[in-house]
Amino acid sequence: MATLFFIIIYLTIIILLITSQWKVYTKANQPGWACLIPIYNTIILLKIVGKPWWWLLLFLIPIVNVIFIVWVANLLSKSFGKGVGFTIGLLLLPFIFYPILGFGSSQYKGLEGN
After folding, report:
1. pTM (2 decimals)?
2. Most C-beta atoms within 10 A of its C-beta, which of 45, 54, 85, 104?
3. Which whole-number Å values give the CA distances from 104 to 20, 63, 75, 101, in the listed order?
4. 85 within 8 A of 114, measured Cβ to Cβ
């Protein structure tokens, strides 16, 4: 019975993250369905934060990928007018902070918040 409970919680969090990311992409004038396609979703995310597609290759290099994941999360925060604290939230508690971006009053301000 406990296993079923955890499965339901897990699926709820996954659905929340997918719908939140869909809304974030839509707010940034990108197709929301792009969040469902592996690799393509990262290319679109890089487009949202104003970085070239080849940064995707940097995500494949161990240790370097951690730096670039943090950097992209920071650029995403800036693109929606948020600060470093929000970046930390996106990295540590994405199931709380992605819905804030997607369903909250945050507006896409353009590449890196310009």
Report:
1. 0.88
2. 45
3. 10, 33, 18, 6
4. no
